[in-house]
Amino acid sequence: MTDFILDAMAWGGYVGIFLLMALENIVPPIPSEVIMGLGGMAVARGDMHLWPLVAWGTAGTTVGNYFWYFIGRNVGYKRFRPVIDRHGRWLTLDWSDVQRIHDFFLRHGGWVIFVFRFMPAFRTIISLPAGMTRMGLPRFLIWTFLGSAIWNSILAAAGLYFGSNFGVIDHYVGPAAIALTALLIAGYLYRVATWRPRG
């Protein structure tokens, strides 16, 4: 994975960072922590500059999140009900759960988008209900961009701070990402096994 990211950065520079960060939000297994961290390492070497790195990375993050927002907006809230009726068992959701999420998002959607930008796995998924509840596009983009800019700045600054030793961090980040993914999958399987519809 690291070699793929480094090759994309060598090929496209800031544009490579933009594409990687957009792809990271469409195909979540690509870790933004490693992308921006390696970008920060490139800044330490003098191959990139910090603020263009953060700007291009954040723009890519925003575009990637818009992909899921667009899908949610076109599917819509009410058109999601047949999916719940048919596949609620595997989604572990009743329609009443969806209604509560919908109502909560209508009241608090802005800060939820912002806060979830700092949460692994959930930071991409949250764009789907934002679209389904038809959150205004400018509002969605602003909250996504702001949260992403802060998070990406932290990651890039970490890569800059550790410089050439970032490979040591990557040695731990990879297994940690795998462990977190395994934990999420185990949690989902447990929820499927124990879930019972309220009806």
TrEMBL record:
Residues 30-159 form the VTT domain. Keywords: Cell membrane, Membrane, Transmembrane, Transmembrane helix. The keyword Transferase does not apply. One of its GO terms (cellular component) is plasma membrane. It is a multi-pass membrane protein. The keyword Transmembrane applies. It comes from the Bacteria. It comes from Sphingomonas aerophila. The chain crosses the membrane at residues 12-30, 50-71, 140-160, 172-190. This is Membrane protein DedA with SNARE-associated domain. It is found in: Cell membrane.
